Amino acid sequence: MDGQSDRTLIAGLQPRETLWDSIRAEAAAAVQAEPLLGALIHAGLLHHRTFHCALAYRFSLKLASGEMSEQILREIADDAHTREPSLAAAAQADLEAVFARDPACHRLMQPMLFFKGYQALQAYRIGHWLWENGRRDMAYFVQMRCSEVFGVDIHPAARIGTGVMIDHAHSIVIGETAVVGNDVSMLHSVTLGGTGKEDGDRHPKIGDGVMIGAGAKVLGNIRVGARSRIAAGSVVLMDVPPCKTVAGVPARIVGDAGCDQPSDMMNQILGLDSVF
């Protein structure tokens, strides 16, 4: 599956069981092509009956340490997925988002095995489930390990929608009271942070379909309207209306978003009419 036609056929159209069958077929072909990865691919994908079992295995394998065993983490993840089926549904939507938007993603199995942005986001989702169920210290442990392993620091109390892509994912920071809508795309070194030492609701609220460019900093309890674009390297300190492009330090409106769904198009080039 390498090409736009395959992306159109698969992403967003198939139920989770069919998606998992597609992933397993890719995995079997990958073992044939690269036998040296056979053990990794079997352990990570082919050994598991269901999509959510594979997710739980990957979570436990990547986050295990001398302080917390793989077995304990696997039990936590299995319990979370059993009690909250929406975790697997969100993971499917995120996977389809990566496959549809990232030109470097040629197979559905890639994010599950190799893309730390996808894996960190699924770990956050388990951490958030723990937080919502009163297991706050364990949620903090998951946050810590995600930061150590993936370089992605998402507070477990943050609320993140589905169909989210975090591309490259190095140095992502999302604060405690941040809210990220559905179908959002962000690149590496994005910060959704607070300002000063104030307590309470202090982090950004990102609308549906927003694209946040590499290195952008969105600070304070501000709102970024749906289907807007934040240019790379921008520092956003004020509300952003829907369907606009902002750029600069501090960021200002430089034009319209340029399309109905910036997070899908992933176009980070400002038109000349927006710059001058």
Automatic annotation (TrEMBL):
Entry keyword set: Acyltransferase, Amino-acid biosynthesis, Repeat, Transferase
Limits of the Serine acetyltransferase N-terminal domain: 19-123
The keyword Amino-acid biosynthesis is assigned to this record: yes
Keyword Repeat: yes
Gene source species: Paracoccus sphaerophysae
Family of the protein in this entry: Belongs to the transferase hexapeptide repeat family.
CDD domains: LbH_SAT (cd03354)
Pathway as given in its UniProt record: Amino-acid biosynthesis; L-cysteine biosynthesis; L-cysteine from L-serine: step 1/2
GO molecular function: serine O-acetyltransferase activity
Protein name per the record: Serine acetyltransferase
PANTHER family for this protein: SERINE ACETYLTRANSFERASE
Stretches of the chain forming a coiled coil according to its record: none
PROSITE patterns reported for this sequence: HEXAPEP_TRANSFERASES
Record GO cellular component, one term: cytoplasm
Record-listed E.C. numbers: 2.3.1.30
One family name in Pfam for this protein: Hexapep
Catalytic activity: L-serine + acetyl-CoA = O-acetyl-L-serine + CoA
GO biological process entries: cysteine biosynthetic process from serine
